[in-house]
Amino acid sequence: MIRTATLELATAGNGQVIDITDAMQGVLYGTQLQHGIATVFCPSATSAVTTIEYESGAVRDFQRLFDEIVPPDGEYLHNQQRGDDNGHSHVRAALLGPSLTVPFSDGRLTLGTWQRVVYVDFDTRPRQRRLVVQIIGE
Ligand code: ZN
């Protein structure tokens, strides 16, 4: 059986990290499926998903890493050619990736104790986002 749902998020942008684990698990509960895989996908060129221990130190370390390797004030052809300001947002999103698949068993995501699914909005302004959650299972 396949179920597809959406998650709506109001984000602040600029590398904001949002814990979407409970929302994803909530979609899964609603399906009453017991075993399978759940994918979350962001249809966006400036945001991404991953997992992390969701505490302020780890989240800040994660954000700081992107400031170091893809700095906002770097030179980006995207900004020059398109008159845009989010060249770094696109590169960051491409690096991290737009989707994540988590197996579930007995109706629960098989995440580690401290492992949380997070959505990261790298764009340079607040956005209204819609994520796709697709669940394949039985
Ligand atoms: Zn752009």
Rg: 16 Å
CATH architecture: Sandwich
Distance between the termini: 6 Å
List the domain count as a whole number. Answer: 1
Mean pLDDT: 98
The count of DSSP E runs of length 2 or more, i.e. the number of strands, is: 8
Helical percentage: 25-40%
CATH homologous superfamily - what is it? Answer: YjbQ-like
Order of helices and strands: EEHEEHHHEEEE
CATH topology: Jelly Rolls
The small-molecule ligands in this entry are:
zinc ion
**Helical segment count:** 4
Low-confidence runs: none
Describe this structure in words.
This protein has one domain: Sandwich (Jelly Rolls), CATH 2.60.120. It is α+β, with helices and mostly antiparallel strands and 138 residues long. A hairpin with a 2-residue loop joins strand 5 and strand 6 (108-109). 30% of the residues lie in helices and 39% in strands. It has a five-stranded antiparallel β-sheet, with helices on one face. The protein has a three-stranded antiparallel β-sheet with strand order 2-7-4, sandwiched between helices. It starts with a strand and ends with a strand. The protein has helices spanning 21-31, 56-69, 77-82, 87-96; strands at 2-11, 16-19, 36-41, 47-53, 99-105, 108-109, 115-121, 127-137. Bound molecules: zinc ion. The site of zinc ion has 4 residues, from loops.
